[in-house]
Amino acid sequence: MSDSGSLTVMTPTDREIVLTRAFAAPRRMVFDAFTKPELLERWFGARGWNLVVCEVDLRTGGTWRFVSRGPGGAEMGHGGVYRVVLPPGRLVYTELYDDQSYPGESLITHEFVERNGVTTLTSTVLYASKEGRDTVLRYPMERGVTEGYDRLSELLRTR
User: Fold this and answer.
1) pLDDT of 5 above 80
2) CA of 101: how far to CAs of 97, 126, 132, in Å?
3) Fewest beta carbons less than 10 Å away: which of 17, 108, 128, 141?
4) Gap between the Cα atoms of 15 and 143, Å rounded
5) Which residues contact 91 (CB under 8 A, 6 or more apart)?
């Protein structure tokens, strides 16, 4: 099995960011890593950031809440509501950051597709506005997601 190790970032519309990465693991394992607190706590976030709060009510209409702590004790909180939970293939939820410098609520759709033991994750983030999407593109979002997904890949290799 191979892990591409590279994140693809596209902007197909003026309100979307689409992130794609392959992982050398069955989709059930990758889906679980996105939905089980004991796994999320081991990989979620850029290097140097760790979840200190990880609450998951994994059902349609259930809520989730994460707080990450980073270098120097900085904290970042966000949460939302699960809209679609179809293990192990699809997960859709809202996301809103506590820090108002982030651009309002977004809708995230994760699609997990497995072929020959390799799972391709395609994540589509739909923002409320073009301005919101563009604000996120100015952040080090790509670096943070890449580092988090690298941590996830390391975790999947150990399982």
Assistant:
1) no
2) 9, 17, 10
3) 128
4) 20
5) 31, 34, 35, 82, 84, 85, 109, 110, 112
pLDDT classification of 104: cutoffs 50, 70, 90: confident
For 127, the token pair is 């923002």
Is-contact 37 60, C-beta < 8 A?
A: no
Those residues with Cβ within 8 angstroms of residue 51's Cβ, 6 or more apart along the chain or in another chain: 40, 41, 44, 45, 66, 67, 68
Size of the chain in residues: 159
91: nearest Cα among 107, 111, 62: 111
CA distance 156 to 79: 24
Rounded to whole angstroms, the Cα distance separating 22 from 20 reads 7
Beta bridge partners of 123: 19, 110
Q: For the segment 50-88, what is each residue's pLDDT rounded down to a tens digit? A: 999 999 999 999 999 999 999 999 999 999 999 999 999
